[in-house]
Amino acid sequence: MSLVTTPARALAVCSVCAGTRVTAITMTLTDGSVVDFASCHTCEHKSWTQGGAPLDISTVLRKATKTKVAR
Ligand SMILES: [Zn+2]
């Protein structure tokens, strides 16, 4: 039986205001990328990460946009 009962998302801390009222969700974008989205309730800072690496919002939007590949 594992003693590790604290999910990683419960440890989310805002990188801007260091607040702990952060909502973190994981979602899959259109291109199949699994990303984590965190939203701070204190300062409304939002951040995206993929595998722990920060993602630029423009990258997220590009990934979330269905791309028709030209033949
Ligand atoms: Zn914050």
Q: How far apart, in Å, are the first and last alpha carbons?
A: 52 Å
Number of domains: 1
Rg estimate, integer Å: 15 Å
Oligomer description: single chain
H and E order: EEEEH
User: What is the strand tally?
Assistant: 4
Strand content is 25-35%
Strand order of the largest sheet: 1-2-3-4
Count of DSSP H/I helices: 1
List the ions, cofactors and other small molecules found in this model. zinc ion
Shape, per Cα inertia axes: elongated
Descriptive account of the structure:
Helix content is 11%, strand content 31%. The protein is elongated. The chain contains 1 helix and 4 strands. The model has no long low-confidence stretch (mean pLDDT 84). The termini are far apart. It has one domain. Strand 2 and strand 3 form a beta hairpin. It has 71 residues and is mainly beta. It has a 4-stranded antiparallel sheet. Zinc ion binds next to loops.
Brief overview, please?
The chain has 71 residues and is mainly beta. The chain has one domain (8-63).
